[in-house]
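Possible regression after last week's pipeline update?

I re-ran a chain I had predicted before the update to compare outputs. Posting the input and the new output here so someone can diff against the archived version. Not blocking, just want to make sure nothing changed silently.
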Amino acid sequence: MPDVVDVPERWEVVSSAEHFSGRVIRVVTDAVVMPDGEVVNRDYVAHPGSVSVVALDDRDRVLMIRQYRHPAGRLLWELPAGLRDVEDEPLHLAAARELAEEAGYRAATWHTLVDALTSPGMTDERTRIFLARDLTPIPEGELDFVRRHEESDMPVVWIPLSDAVRRALEGMIHNFQAVAGILAAYAASADAFASLRPADAPEA
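New output (post-update):
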C-alpha cells in the first residue's frame, strides 16, 4: 500500500496564457504534457492563498461571522479569514490580523490546525486554518481598521463547538474553511490539542 501523503509534483508546461488579471485572481491556461506525451490545456485560477482562524473560547465555543458571498448567492457563516496579501508576512501573523480586524479579538495561544487546497482542480489557492485560544477582546478604539463593502455588516456569534459540528454535518454551514476548521478542531480536541503543529510550522 502506498504511503498516503501528498507530495509535490509538476508536469512540464510547454506554454501558458493569461486571460484575465483582477485585484485578487488571475485566470490562466497552461498546456501540460501528460505522461503519454499528449499535450492538453488546463484552465485554473491563480490565487495568492488565504488563512483563517478557529477562535475557541474557554467555554469551547467557536467564533463565527456572517458575510455575503456574491458568487455563492448566500449569506454564509464563516471563520475570520483573509488573503495572504502582505508580502513575507508569517501566516500566523496574517491570521492574527484577520481575527483582530474582522472579530475584534486577539489570542495568546496559536496552533496550526489544518492545511488544505480549496479546490485543486480549478485553483492553486492554499489555505492554512489556525486554532486560536486564550482570547481577549481588543479595547474599542485600539483598532484603526475600517470595514467596507461586504465586511461592513458582519455579525459575530459564539457557537458551541459541538453545535457547530452538527450544523456542518447537517448542511447548515457551507463555507469550506469553516467546515474543515470546525471538524478539525473537534477532532483535535480529543487529546486537548496536544497533537497539533506549532503556529509557525512549515507548509508541506
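Follow-up from reviewer: compared with the archived run. The mean pLDDT is 94. Marking as no regression found.
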